[in-house]
Amino acid sequence: MPALLSRLTAIWIAACLLFTGQVLTAPQRAAAADPGYLMTHFIGEGATGQQIYFSHSTDGLNWTDLNGGGMTLRSTVGTRGVRDPSLVRSPDGDRYWIIATDLCIGCGQSWDAAVYNGSRNLVVWESRDLVTWSQPWLLNVAGAIPDGRNAWAPEAIWDPETGDYVLYWATNATLDGVLKHRIYYARTSEFRTVTTPQLYIDRPGTQNIIDTQIVEVPSGVGDYRYVRASGDGQITIEGSNSILGTWTSLGNLSGIGLTGSQVEGPMWMKFRDRDEWSLYLDQYSTGRGYLPVLTTDPSAPAAYQLPASGSYDLGGTTKRHGSILTLTAAEDSRVLARWPDTAVSRLQSYNFQDRYVRHTGFDVRIDPNVSPAEDAQFRVRTGLVGSGTVSFESVNYPGYFLRHSGFDFQLAYNDGTAQFAADATFRQVAGLADTSWSSFQSYNYPGRYIRHYAYQLRLDSVTTATERADATFRVTG
Q1: What angle do CA 253, 238, 318 make, to 5 degrees?
Q2: Distance (Å, whole) CA 153 – CA 211
Q3: Which of 130, 167, 242, 249 is the most buried (most CB within 10 A)?
Q4: For residue 472, which of 445, 452, 456, 446 has the smallest C-alpha distance?
Q5: pLDDT in tens, 314-350
Q6: In Å, how far are 134, 296, 314, 316, 412 from 57, measured between CA atoms?
């Protein structure tokens, strides 16, 4: 409701100003457009905590978990876990990427193994609209680094001087006889191939540097076009007028009590309606997730201030090392429509009431005592072909839907095609065996219904009493 009121207020302001002939200021234009902010992050350890999560804000300080706090993308490649995601928008706004660390602590991998013999790959997703994402792929960035042992905390920034991205990350490698984490970079235009990695940031002696994020600052604010914050024992601030040029150390945030022993994962956000920034810092030492630190000049460490108590709210999940994208109005609408807080449901069989629809190995059947329980949990979405229909999205494999193919069912990844949408869409009607339950009629084969046969899920014509019972389900919690 607050978000709706904010939108209505913004529209009213814009209409009034237009009617009276007033010229809108930059902050008024931003408020009238009412874009929000999208944060991508992970939430903790384990196979489900180390995945992609989205959160949304209208003011940059108070955040709401999207998708009911559930994951929005799941890695099925590499270690099958991801941390430190970065969300990248193309200069034209027609393509987006998520790049993330291929790392899953507690999922068959220890910290020691990750430091000294971890994945040399990043995990990458691509989208044209922020809501339908490709399957993930692995991008080897550290394999060409001599003695490179891992690839962590990737970021990317568009370089207008060369018309491509500077992709940078941390790798633990031996250089001049010293094994430690340094920041390396390569160039890329599509996040499928990279140039030969080069050393980007090093610190003296044995000091590691792992987390770095760069923000571009508009002219008139500070003395530098670019400012970067890094985790190198402190949260160090540096400035430069060129991404790959000379950087000047400007100080750190120890003066406000934030050192590298307390916080990591710096994440920049520019407020859309004023010249103020928030540098979010992950309070990893206490496990409390992100804390916003505010400034009107990113290049001046003395200007950073801790937020007032009660002035921010990070929502229900712990927000860990990620990135924030300021949304246009169109992007904002698409994101909120794609990941509403939809209840988690199960589909209970009418004639085998101890059994529930579940996926196993991406096949679909009905089983009792489903373990893990999430294999039988779905979000009943508005149908992929539109209103008045439903589609069933997996809870633990977001982006995967119940879909018929050859009249058999599988849990399949939405490829964004019209054929997939039709195959994964159904009309929920009164139960064929009991009208207090439900049956699900195929959208593109309206003479067929979801039913089980020998415990396997099928799309079949229904005529007999047994078939009607097989095709009847209860949507339950």
Answers
A1: 50
A2: 6
A3: 167
A4: 452
A5: 999 999 999 999 999 999 999 999 999 999 999 999 9
A6: 25, 20, 9, 13, 31
